[in-house]
Amino acid sequence: MVQRFDVSGKIALITGASSGLGAHFARTLAAAGAKVVLAARRLDRLAALAAEIEAAGGQALAVEMDVTKADTVKAALASTVAHYGGPADIIVNNSGLSREDFFTDMSEEDFDLVMDTNVKGVWLVARTFAGALAATGKPGSMINIASITALRPSKTLLAYGASKAAVDHMTRIMALEMARYGVRVNALAPGYFLTDINSEHLTGPGGEKMLERVAMRRFGKHDELSGPLLLLASDAGSYMTGTTITVDGGHTLTPL
Question: pLDDT value at position 1?
Answer without folding.
Answer: 63
